[in-house]
Amino acid sequence: MVKTTATQTWNNLTGNANVNRNHYEIFYIMPFISIIIPIYKVEHFLKECLDSIIVSPSDCWEAILVDDGSPDNCPTICNDYAARDHRFRVIHQKNSGVAAARNAGLDMAKGEWVWFVDSDDMVDMHFVADIVTWLKSHKEADFVMFDLNTFKDGKEKPSSPHDTPSLPPISELGRNDFFLRYITYNHQQVWYRKSSQFRFTYGIRVSEDLELMYKYCMLCQHPVKFDALLYYYRIRGNSATQNASYQKVTVEDLPLVFNNLLIWIQKYQIKPEAWLDFRLMKMIQNLLYHASQIQGLDIDVFQNQIRRIITDYRKTGFPFANVKKYKLAERNVKVYFLLNKFYLKIIHPN
Q1: 292-312 pLDDT, tens per residue?
Q2: Are 246 and 294 in contact (CB under 8 A)?
């Protein structure tokens, strides 16, 4: 049975909307955090992922399993877990991509916070209830970061240290200093407060998660970091980031991400803080590197894209646009590729 609201569940059980619900509502706990899991072609890993969640005895969470039209046994696995445990809820939809799957999960989520988990990874729920308890007494916190570890597919997941995590002082750092000290490019190690204004951009296949993260970080005021290992990221040889087409997709999508972020910056009049300038600089560096690896790249089209990105961000006041090597790329991306290739050979001779 999928639980919705306490009222609806009570009516379903009794068949009478007029019966006093107070006794039942004592036992109904609205989830504090919604774990959103997009699922597609991961039947060999999915049970490990869901088993790592279901071990938690707490009712502070719900897991929303978004079957994105997976053609394997994943839909059945999802249904099985939902039948076993009411904290699991399932969405079945036609294949629409990871951004659409996560958005579908956001639309169903009932928690105050959301956590995006990949279906081939694993989590450690040991301290989730402790963090939830802390957040309930620190309502001003609006961004939570914790630790992440990686392991290679076929290797055993590292053991989980269960030392009591340190509780962060809420005003330890301002936003800029926090995001300069604690840098992550993995949205899996972040909890966000749920908000109707935050959605993944449909159609973007690479860095759609960073786009949402950076938009959120621009507006949040009180980020906190817990010294607790909650996430285990599986490195797969055939994952999207290891695929041969990844470079091409990156070059196609990152200019869209830059444009979407610029629109957001202008809409909310975001100042060019140092943390954001650093993240944007790493993104332009990533875009240029992947473009340099593509055979048959349309240089003229790419040159115009780079020129527009750097010019627009310079007008908005971001210092990275005035760094010499990016000004070079703005003028002549071919020369940038050659010099960067030479530089990489020097620092990585083998």
Answers
A1: 999 999 999 999 999 999 999
A2: no
Q: Which two tokens stand for residue 280?
A: 């944007």
Give the tokens for residue 272. Answer: 């060019």
Which of 187, 259, 262, 283 has its CA nearest to residue 218?
Answer: 262
- How many Å apart are CA 38 and CA 187, to the nearest integer? 14
Q: Please, are residues 49 and 121 in contact by the beta-carbon 8 Å criterion?
A: yes
d(CA 31, CA 64): 11
* DSSP state for residue 320 in the 8-state scheme: G
Cβ neighbours of residue 45 closer than 8 Å, sequence gap 6 or more = 119, 120, 121, 234
C-alpha torsion sign, points 8, 14, 17, 23: negative
Residue 204: name the closest of 261, 263, 254, 265 by CA. 254
Ranges under pLDDT 50 in the chain: 1-28, 242
Please give the pLDDT value at position 336.
Answer: 96
pLDDT in tens, 12-29: 333 333 333 333 333 447
Please report, for residues 277, 303, 320, 327, the alpha-carbon distance to residue 324 in angstroms, rounded to integers and kept in the order given. 15, 16, 9, 5
CA-to-CA distance for 126 and 345, rounded, in angstroms?
45
Between CA 36 and CA 257 the distance in angstroms is 22
Distance from C-alpha of 139 to C-alpha of 141, rounded to nearest angstrom: 6
Distance, CA of 55 to CA of 79 (rounded, Å) = 18
CA–CA dist 248, 98 (Å, integer): 18
End-to-end alpha carbon distance in the chain: 58
> What H or E segment, with its residue span, contains residue 257?
helix 246-267
Q: State residue 16's pLDDT score.
A: 37
User: Per DSSP, which regions of 78-222 are E strands?
Assistant: 88-93, 113-116, 122-123, 143-152, 190-193
What stretches of 168-272 adopt beta strand conformation (E)?
A: 190-193, 223-235
Quick one: which of 350, 326, 320, 319 has its CA closest to 340?
326
Q: How much is the pLDDT for 162?
A: 60
